[in-house]
């Protein structure tokens, strides 16, 4: 894992919790030359990318192009991997956040929607952990049974069920569905990843 400064780590962690992995707005107090230097280093390392801002949606701007368009910053898969978030997990979390925001915007009047709505909790998934293993198992098209999770992690069945209900559903906000299979028993899978 690459060595990150505190500022870089915070920028990437915040981007991981936002729709489309937007890195803007930056930290409060980070402006001017310090912001340009920090962002330039992160772009150079491939952790951030400049993309055209969606002005209709109200994306915060990094810089203006002068022709009525603007540029914003997004965290790349390499940037998310630098803080320990696997690309598959990052994509799934981004899709889940988009769904939540779309539901929230459908329930409200358009004038009430804030462009920087951040309804999700920070993501803290490190590559190579048992939590990441379980997420990968549940993202497979065939899902996973408790027995398969126990075999992969070495945990007791009650610990595996606790991780699914407490860690994945409540803390991370995954939509975990279940189905029944005559041979495998109860099968768990993360909706939207099939």
Structure description:
With 194 residues, this protein is α+β, with helices and mostly antiparallel strands. The protein folds into 2 domains: 6-112, Arc Repressor Mutant, subunit A, CATH 1.10.10; 130-190, Winged helix-like DNA-binding domain superfamily/Winged helix DNA-binding domain (Arc Repressor Mutant, subunit A), CATH 1.10.10.10. It is 43% helix and 14% strand. It contains 7 helices and 6 strands. It has helices spanning 6-16, 32-44, 77-82, 87-107, 130-139, 146-153, 157-171, and strands at residues 48-52, 63-64, 70-75, 144-145, 176-181, 185-190. It has a 3-stranded antiparallel sheet. Strands 4-6-5 form a 3-stranded antiparallel sheet. Strand 5 (176-181) and strand 6 (185-190) form a beta hairpin. The longest helix has 21 residues, at 87-107. The radius of gyration is 19 Å and the shape is elongated. The protein starts with 5 loop residues before the first helix and ends with a strand.
Any guess at the CATH architecture of the largest domain?
Answer: Orthogonal Bundle
Low-confidence stretches: 109-118
Supply the number of helical segments: 7
CATH topology of the largest domain: Arc Repressor Mutant, subunit A
What average pLDDT do the residues reach?
79
Shape: elongated
Please state the structural category.
Answer: alpha+beta
Question: What's the domain count?
Answer: 2
Q: Kindly report the spatial arrangement of strands forming the biggest sheet.
A: 1-3-2
Q: Cα-atom Rg, whole angstroms?
A: 19 Å
What is the strand content?
Answer: 5-15%
Helicity, as a percent range: 40-55%
Cα(first) to Cα(last) distance is 29 Å
Main sheet overview: 3 strands, antiparallel
Topology as H/E string?
HHEEEHHHEHHEE
Count of DSSP strands: 6
């Amino acid at each position: 894992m690459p060595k990150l400064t505190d500022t870089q780590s915070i920028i990437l962690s915040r981007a991981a919790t936002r729709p489309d992995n937007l890195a803007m707005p930056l930290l409060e107090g980070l402006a001017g030359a310090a912001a340009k230097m920090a962002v330039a280093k992160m772009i150079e390392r491939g952790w951030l990318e400049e993309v055209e801002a969606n002005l209709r949606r109200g994306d915060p701007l990094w810089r203006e192009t002068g022709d009525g368009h603007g540029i914003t910053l997004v965290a790349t898969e390499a940037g998310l991997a630098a803080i320990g978030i696997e690309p598959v997990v990052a994509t799934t979390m981004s899709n889940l956040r988009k769904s939540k925001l779309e539901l929230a915007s459908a329930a409200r009047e358009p004038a009430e929607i804030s462009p920087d709505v951040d309804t999700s909790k920070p993501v803290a998934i490190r590559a190579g952990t048992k939590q990441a293993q379980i997420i990968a198992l549940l993202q497979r098209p065939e899902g996973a049974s408790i027995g398969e999770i126990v075999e992969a992690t070495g945990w007791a069945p009650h610990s595996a069920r606790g991780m699914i209900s407490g860690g994945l559903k409540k803390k991370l906000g995954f939509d975990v569905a279940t189905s029944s299979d005559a041979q495998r028993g109860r099968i768990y899978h993360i909706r939207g990843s099939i």
